[in-house]
Design a protein that fits this description.
The protein is α/β, with parallel strands linked by helices. The chain has one domain: 4-Layer Sandwich (Metallo-beta-lactamase, Chain A). Helices cover 23% and strands 20% of the residues. The strands form 2 sheets. It has a 7-stranded mixed sheet with strand order 6-5-4-3-2-1-13, covered by helices on one side. Strands 7-8-9-10-11-12 form a 6-stranded mixed sheet, covered by helices on one side. Helix 4 links the parallel strand 5 and strand 6. Helix 5 runs parallel beside helix 6 and helix 6 crosses helix 7. The longest helix is centred in the N-terminal third of the chain and has 15 residues. The termini are far apart. The N terminus is likely disordered.
């Protein structure tokens, strides 16, 4: 009775099979054959008016900047609609920077990152100490795979909010800005309300942000905005994305515009595009 044939697993591959495998590997290495790669997770960003941005990190952490809703004619959301927040970044003690931070922190349990003295003021308003992450310029926060570097800001920090009168403002400490590096390595520079300062070149060289949310206040000087952006290109080939902040959806007469900033950048030879954000639109970024 014939013995059934069994496959010899130790048998060497034929010469055509070896050649085919070698050619396939070589072609793939030169990009001739598509090779599947895992998609890198993205950072999602939304603008809700003025300088209120919401970032959702690749791992789902929610970071807010300046949640100015109450009293903001351009606010795209209501306070009660902010049901999730992990961190709130508050760079100084001005009313439009603090915004509705206190209510949102109490409603969501979010931690507040702010200059030291401003954090102490938040504690007097009923925010638990466990939710206060006091950081002055030069500090760093490493949290859940996200790194936030606190940098300086040329701006004030006092406010008459919830005081006896605006003539006796709170002292919010040093004004700050933030370099935020997400889990996927993408870094955005949120300078708060800072005017251009040579220090921006140092931070650009050190942290090399991929995006900048630059100050475009209605009374801003176009060349100041342009110079701030130019400084952030210093030894930083990564900067590819620009968004304005501190501006109205419909600028009042005489207010600084994206077109004016664009003209200044063109005169400086800076070709980085400016995206004028649409409220509540989701923008996505990968490293």
């Amino acid at each position: 009775m014939p013995t059934p044939h069994r496959q010899d697993r130790s048998r060497p591959k034929s010469l055509p099979a070896i050649l085919f495998a070698a050619l396939t590997a070589s072609a793939a290495s030169f990009g001739l054959i598509p090779v599947a790669h895992a998609q890198a997770p993205s950072v999602k960003m939304e603008w809700f008016g003025w300088s209120f941005f919401r970032f959702t990190s690749p791992k789902g952490k929610v970071i807010l900047t300046n949640p100015f809703i109450t009293g903001n004619a351009d606010a795209a959301v209501k306070v009660e609609e902010i049901t999730k927040a992990d961190l709130i970044l508050v760079p100084d003690g001005h009313r439009d920077e603090i915004g509705d931070t206190i209510d949102i922190a109490k409603n969501t349990g979010a931690k507040i990152v702010s200059p030291f003295e401003l954090g102490t003021w938040f504690s007097t308003k009923g925010v638990p100490d466990a939710q206060l992450l006091r950081r002055n310029p030069g500090s760093r926060l490493v949290w859940e795979g996200i790194t936030i570097r606190v940098v300086g800001s040329v701006h004030g920090s006092g406010s008459g909010r919830d005081t006896v009168s605006d003539a006796a403002p709170i002292y919010g400490g040093a004004a700050a800005g933030f370099m935020i590096t997400f889990e996927n390595g993408w870094t955005v520079y949120f300078p708060g309300s800072s005017a251009a300062t040579q220090d921006m070149a140092l931070w650009a060289d050190a942290y090399k942000p991929d995006a900048m949310i630059f100050l475009m206040h209605p009374s801003g000087e176009p060349r100041d905005a342009g110079m701030a952006i130019k400084l952030v290109t210093t030894n930083n080939p990564n900067l590819k994305v620009l968004f304005p902040q501190h501006h109205r959806v419909t600028p009042p007469p005489g207010a600084l515009t994206v077109a004016e900033v664009r003209a200044v950048l063109d005169s400086m030879g800076i070709r980085i595009p400016i995206t004028d954000p649409v409220r509540k639109r989701v923008y996505e970024f990968k490293k």
